[in-house]
Amino acid sequence: MNSVALLGQYPFRLSSTFCCAIHSARPQRRTLKGRGTRHSARALLGPDAVFSAATVAVIPLYILMVAFPKASITKHILQPGHFYTAAAALYSGLLIAWWPAGIGQLCKGAFQGCSPLPDVHVLAGAFTNAHVTALAWVHLLLLDIVQAREVWLDGLKHGVATGHSVILCFMFGPLGILSHMVTRRMFRARLDSSQASSAQGLA
């Protein structure tokens, strides 16, 4: 009798144990899922990912300015409202997100080392932090593309070719501006010479 009763209760015990195992596993699955989501977010906002993504993201903008300077899509993407808002939002977002990673403390240390000018060795030490390096890289990329955009706009305004100068602005911003200044002066000199020749021919 006891054996029969035990056998009759055994399936119930198995089902109860199985249900308890399922219920206990559900929170663990949620926890693992939450951890995975947070890990993915950290990976996307990590300095390695941001460094690579920012480098790749600016290339299409340079291609548009060089290959399609007068296209409507180029003018639409690089109009001040869209361009400067996106650039400011990106930089501000990274600065806020990475501030707890030590950027604030490193900036404080760099300014404390000023006597009265910043010390290059103190700043060099700050760049051993991957977040600082990635943020500085984004900073440089944005500065270069702002200079390239101004060169491109000035070329459209005065009818001057800017492809070579825009390319120089990529990584060598000041050289791109200098190249555009020289190109514009040469274009103006050629235009004046052409107009003078035309006037002499008419006379």
UniProtKB/TrEMBL annotation:
It comes from Coccomyxa viridis. The chain crosses the membrane at residues 43-63, 83-101, 162-182. Keywords: Membrane, Transmembrane, Transmembrane helix. This is G11808 protein.
